[in-house]
Amino acid sequence: MKLKTFIKKIEEKYPLNLAYDWDNVGLIVGDYDRDIKKVMVVLEANESVVDEAINKNMDLIITHHPFIFSKINKVNTSDLKGRLIHKLIKNDISIYSMHTNFDIAFDGLNDYFVDMLELKNVKILDKTKSETLYKLAVYVPKTHIDNVRIALGNSGAGHLGNYKDCSFTTEGEGRFKPCEGANPYIGQEGALESVHEVKIETIVPQKILDKVISSMIKAHPYEEVAYDLYKLENKGESLGLGRYGKLKENITFKSLGMILKDKLDMKYLRVVGNLNDEVSKIAIVTGSGADMVKKAYKAGCDVLITGDMKYHDAQDTLDMGMKVIDCGHFDTEKVFADIMFNYINENFDIDIVKSDVNLNPFDII
Question: At what angle do helices 47-55 and 80-90 cross, to 10 degrees?
Fold first, then answer.
């Protein structure tokens, strides 16, 4: 499989335009036209990970943390990052990073915690944008209405809230004259043809627009498919960082912490708040999300689950009457490899492995 084909499908699920402007996501090192057969997924790529990929003959490393984040002015082997770039290029290994776009997208890191805790009535904590929608109108002969309509629905078009396969049809006359060299499904070269057609209209989110149009064209009988696209003022699903929702039943703050320790296989947690208090409404911001405490408080949450909380943030949290479980940056994001392993394994015919390198820089003594 070509790397560009693989990436295109990944980005339909986790679009790069969801990432914050300061982030660095996408193909960091590599060749889009390269064939790939073996992929490694890992939280980030340090020298041990790169050496592991070389030893295992990997073609691609997929990371959560951007391999190149800050500006670099030189690439030489006297610098750590330069040395790794040299190793990657010499061994024909590409690196692709998906960071805040993966945090924001549905079925990313935050939604993993939502599923793990079985939260209900889940909402976005910090909305950053709304999905762009398009109206797609295509003109189809009556013989192929169902073929095209089904192709549109199966590719994801016509999804409105809790409803799918939504479309609208109107009937009319289509006219065309096949020119020299044409191979018309209906009509003859040089003769004006009039056909009873149906216009099918449906809604398409921007992230799957190319896929929907491709499926529509394949199902359509005409050599040249007539269709219109209109960018809509209506907005699609809200997107953003963090999630919040309610537990199935109230539990103590301590019990919530013990559940997280067990699920994340952690030795310890840092917590802010009374362990005996009952909690029900939970906010989640994986990675470094301590600055989201006020947003979680305004949303009526009892607890924020995140990492990297500083001393003064903890004091402010206590003053607000909020609670925080600080799992640490690493332990809220180490599941990236599991999520991507499962997604790639289910959607691609390709060899996929998780890195064996332990990337947590902290230990307990």
Answer: 10
- 242-297 per-position pLDDT tens digit: 999 999 999 999 999 999 999 999 989 999 999 999 999 999 999 999 999 999 99
Residue 241, pLDDT above cutoff 90: yes
The per-residue pLDDT for range 48-66, each reduced to its tens digit, is 999 999 999 999 999 999 9
Q: DSSP 3-state assignment of 34?
A: coil
CA distances from 117 to 100, 123, 199, 276, 297 (A): 22, 14, 45, 19, 19
Please identify which residue in the block is written with the tokens 């003859």.
188
User: Residue-wise over 79-113: b if at least 16 C-beta within 10 A, else e?
Assistant: eebeebbebbeeeebbbbbbbbbbbbbeebbbbbb
The crossing angle, in degrees rounded to 10, of helices 109-117 and 336-347 is 100
Instruction: Give the angle 159-118-16 at the CA atoms, nearest 5°.
Output: 50
What is the per-residue pLDDT for 72? 85
* CA–CA separation, 37 and 92 (whole Å): 12
User: Which residue type, as a one-letter code, is found at position 100?
Assistant: T
Query: What is the rounded distance in angstroms from the CA atom of residue 357 to the CA atom of residue 283?
Result: 30
Q: Among residues 16, 26, 11, 38, which one has the least CA distance to residue 93?
A: 38
User: Helices 209-219 and 145-154 sit at what angle, rounded to 10 degrees?
Assistant: 160
| Distance of alpha carbon 257 from alpha carbon 277, whole angstroms | 12
- Tell me the per-residue pLDDT of 107-133, one tens digit each, with 9 for 90 and over: 999 999 999 999 999 999 999 888 899
* Contact residues for 258 (Cβ-Cβ < 8 A; gap 6+): none
Give the 3-state secondary structure of residue 159: coil
How far apart, in Å, are the Cα atoms of 351 and each of 63, 67, 87, 305, 345? 16, 22, 22, 34, 8
Provide the 8-state DSSP code for 171.
E
Q: pLDDT for 183-226, tens place per residue?
A: 888 888 889 989 999 999 999 999 899 999 999 999 999 999 99
Radius of gyration of the chain (CA): 25
